[in-house]
Amino acid sequence: MKELIAYFSTIPSSHRSLILVGGITIFWLIENAFPLFNFSYKKWQHAGINFFLTFTTILINFTLAFLLLKTSNWTATNHFGILYWLPPMELWLNTIIGLLLLDLIGAYLAHFIEHKVKFLWRFHLIHHTDTWVDTTSGNRHHPGESVIRFVFTTLGIVLVGSPMWMVFLYQTLSVVSTQFTHANIALPKKIDNFLSYFIVSPNMHKVHHHYKLPYTDSNYGNIFSFWDRIFGTFLYLPKEEIVYGIDTYMKPEEHNRLKNLLKIPFQEVRSPENS
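Above: the chain sequence. Below: its structure as tokens.
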């Protein structure tokens, strides 16, 4: 544990970038060899849009990173947060609890609220417009949503009392998990089902990308699947029945043009065509 803490306390930006790029590359190769769906699309054009939005997410997080550091330092100075209020325990157990709580507040709760608050949904909607979900779709977030997610991450640090090394560890796990769950890969059904009891599996998350309710409002988990099962937001849909996208933006000129994607939060909100 000491080596893990030491590494993530000083993890270089180059290593974080390598994890991001390396993960996408690995899952890109796997999904080409063992695709879940055989898409008929211009993969590089689709990836170009998602890579641009990934870059804006990185830029925003990098620019605001000093706020995370200050927040984490404040919790340490004031011994504020759940981890400080718990009784003494083994470091590995403290770490697991911290990661679970960061996932609950910074990811599950953020995701759930984005679906329930109309103003926030306007920004998150861009993620759901993707009709060809693959590993590049994981960070298909409007710049506005990246700011929203950052706010929830900061809230998570305050409430949990997370040291900065734990935040970096969580963000690393989150990046790999996001790439894995969005990758267009065909895992054996039994393996996928087994994984879904502990972590978010590809088939579990793909249900969330089904184009109409109630499936769009389900399976909010990021890394751990416990939260959806605990809070009753878990739904199952056979992969053969999944149709990607969102029913209000199914036209290619709406979901496959970067200029329009950036404008969507500021356009008139449309009522769902299906429910």
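The chain has a mean pLDDT of 92.
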